[in-house]
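We include the pair:
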Amino acid sequence: MKALTALVFAIAALTSATAFAGPDDEKWIKQCQADNKDEGAKPEVITKYCTCMNDKMDNNETRSITQWEKANPNTQKACSAQAGWK
């Protein structure tokens, strides 16, 4: 039984956090995509960036991703690099 429980937790840990994104996460990511659509990056890069930023934010955050990134430039740089934003 312990092995089965460990396996379930391991699978859950390997699964992308966005697979479990709730409607609130989707709303924030869509807003971030809209905010960044004219910044010159491909849509898939923007989606990766916005998802990364959303994942870094606390679930109780009330600011948009665009507002939050201004106060967290190191996270913004890290997510830009992770997304391949050039």
Notes: The longest helix spans residues 23-36.
